[in-house]
Prior knowledge:
With 148 residues, this protein is α+β, with helices and mostly antiparallel strands. It has 2 domains: 5-101, no CATH class; 112-147. The chain is built from 4 helices and 4 strands, in the order ααααββββ. It has helices at 5-17, 25-48, 53-73, 78-108, and strands spanning 112-116, 123-127, 132-136, 143-147. A hairpin with a 6-residue loop joins strand 3 and strand 4 (143-147). Helix 2 runs antiparallel to helix 3 (53-73). The longest helix is centred in the middle third of the chain and has 31 residues, at 78-108. This is Zn-finger containing protein.
Amino acid sequence: xxxxxxxxxxxxxxxxxxxxxGMDQLSQFLLYLSLFFLIVSTILFSVLSRxxxxxxxxxxxxxxxxxxxxxxxxxxxxxxRRNENLQYLKIVYxxxxxxxxxxxxLEMLKNYKFFTCPDCKTTLRVPRGKGRxxxxxxRCHAKFxxxx
Length: 148
């Protein structure tokens, strides 16, 4: 049975991509960032209706990011690309974890009052509505007073 043009194309692409890295999260981020820069530079060109240095720099940066994204996707050095992607994911995770912890603390503010130990700077959490209380730091055992 003869294969269709689409099936042959998919086979050829699969054969070509065999042993290559493919699009990982870092490559996708670089691709989206380059597209964003291209859109912003296009808007700058159309709004300002002249050739500005900032729009030109954005265009060249977008092209470099696009080339970098595809060179990562077509790279045969999978171990190196995975390590780079792992470093990127660690950075993204730490940033998202920081925002998640700040949001969680904001949600807890209605039920808890937070105090900082004057000696070791440890954060203590106390339920609201208890009035004046004496606090003892669990880390350095310093005693101080606060109002919840």
